[in-house]
Amino acid sequence: MEAYVLHLLVLSHVFMVPHLKRECEQNLESSFLTIDNVIDVFQISLLCDAPRLSLICHRMILSNFKAVSESEGWKAMKESHPVLEKEVLESMIEEENNKKERTRKINERKIYMQLYEAMEALVHICRDGCRTIGPCDKDFKANQPCKYAACKGLELLVRHFAACKLRVPGGCGHCKRMWQLLELHSRICSDPDGCRVPLCRNFKQRISKQSKKEEIRWKILVKKILRTRGIGIAPCFQQQ
């Protein structure tokens, strides 16, 4: 049947034999579709009103574009149906752009998750203490397990921040990240008066003095971080 399946598909469409047409489509979808014939099948599926088959062909073309574009079927389509070739190329570009956008959003989401986890760890260190760092009124052990994945890295950052000689905004790169994290925390914290994170209240008071543009930028960042976590207010920043 493979040698005649395309002929049968056309005939079943022309003479309106639906059960034979479905059989041909199913065979093409499951067994007979290849890199070499996908362009021919794609064109025929469009002519024969076989939307499912045309969609499967289109996906195969996009997934194997380099190989398909070197096939004889593509060369023939380029000569006989340049408009269709243009549409396929445009859909290929759109698919690439969509893929890049999906990748960008995934990476962006990872960054927001990392920021949230870093702020969780910051609150944990300042409020409860962890391993070798924390408030002086807390009793903690160096070998105690910690449930916050970002805690170890943040512990190193806090130690650097405490000892750095260039600890000014815009100076040391590590300290700059720490300043940004402290300000980000203050914008999410719901209890600045009772918060044990350094400078939380100070940053809250500074908000009114910032430019409108900067304020909008911070609000967007906070909104995206909380949306990534699927919450309205971060529970670790509420009064306890």
From TrEMBL:
Keywords, alphabetical: Metal-binding, Signal, Ubl conjugation pathway, Zinc, Zinc-finger
InterPro entries recorded: BT1/2/3/4/5 (IPR044513), TAZ_dom_sf (IPR035898), Znf_TAZ (IPR000197)
Taxonomy, superkingdom: Eukaryota
Signal peptide: 1-16
Nucleotide-binding keyword on record: no
GO function terms (MF aspect): calmodulin binding; zinc ion binding
Pathway linked to the protein: Protein modification; protein ubiquitination
Transmembrane domains' residue ranges: none
Domain spans labelled TAZ-type: 105-203
Coiled coil regions in record: none
Any one GO biological process: response to hydrogen peroxide
Name the record gives this protein: TAZ-type domain-containing protein
Protein's organism: Arachis hypogaea (Peanut)
